[in-house]
Amino acid sequence: xINRRQFLSxxxxxxxxxxxxxxxTPGPNIIFIMADDLGYGDLGCFGQKTLxxxxxxxxxxxxxxxxDVYAASTVCAPSRCGLITGKHMGHATVRxxxxxxxxxxxxxxxxxxxxxSAGYTTALFGKWGVGGPVxxxxxxxxxxxxxxxxxxxxxxxxxxxxxxxxxxVERFIxxxxxxxxGAFSHDLFSERALDFLDDNHDQPFFLYLPxxxxxxxxxxxxxxxxxxxxxxxxxxxxEDWPEPEKGFAAQVKYLDRDVGRILQKLKDLKVDDNTIVxxxxxxxxHQEGGHKVDFFDSNGPLxxxxxxxxxxxxxVPMIVRWPxxxxxxxxxxxxxxxxxxxxxxxxxxxxxxxxxxxxxxVVPTLLGQDGKQEQxxxxxxxxxxxxxxxxxxxxxxxxVKNDHxxxxxxxxxxxxxxxxxxxxxxxxxxVRKAERYFREARFPSPYWPTPDESAPQDAE
Length: 460
Known about the structure:
The protein is 23% helix and 18% strand. It is α/β, with parallel strands linked by helices. α5 runs parallel beside α6. It is globular and about 60 Å long.
């Protein structure tokens, strides 16, 4: 890769990080691997029958499968914001996909900053999506010592990009100009991750790997073919499937392959027992680029998919492995969400979580200490594309309001996981409770107004 140009310096951020005190007793190394648009039913360990995911399935067999975990949102940018800042969509800086994008603010608390304060070396290789090159939301200003990937979530639609950001340097990829496809970004991220582990395994580290697969390639202006392009179909070329489904299957196989490579690297470096690995997806299954949710049963038993606030849009697979600490083969149905991750990481690292997080640490659940687990009063979502929708889960109950002015729907997830039977008429008390939660959870935002609010001109 050649032709780099410097954009903005992060010297001030680096000086701030250097001044932070190191932790005396380091916690475990932390790796957080996040797929892009992988459905709840796309993994063998979550019920997939056609696609083979042996390495991710092994991760589940050696760790804990968490069945009731939720993304922070049903699309990319806000879900990543909730994860990174520990805030639900009623408080978050980024609550939707917008163009131009809304960046994180300089004062936002983040998982990167929190772990830097505990003495961790932090790295992010993949899709950022919450701060562009001329904003204060850039990864190097938000707690990451090392960054390589896409700044814009729109740019991440291209799996064969002409450039990627290397910290604050724009690095061009000559092999991907024109109609050439010389470098698959997923491969580049995995190689950076493996190199990072080689270079930093002798000190506490946090590796965040937000991969861009199996998101569709919205690249058809530059490339011919379907919307799920890959370098190789990895054995699926002989299947009697539509081309987009071969591409989707191959992207899942690339993902599984590299989870296996990372796990092997941890063993080779002899840091396996001191590293906790999380694996998940940023939201529910997608139906784009020619891929159909029903083809591989990507949403499993769940209703809906990406851009829905039904379970299929926000419930995601979550696997957590920590040899010797998390019971192998464990299964947990404790409901938690992306905005619990910051508090969880702080707990693991032995530092205080920021005061403004909406999350709780789920370390007691991961370690099998359920009696010590703090409970949420409710989990909250809102969504702003084409409509203003809200959802809340409290206990076994789920409330969904699909548009401003529409009636609240109520579902009993303990007996109706597919959300087929709306019992709101039978439970007016639950409707009132949900409406109260909708009101109290939401703080106004100039970029994400409700139909009762007006956006300022600069937020249009």
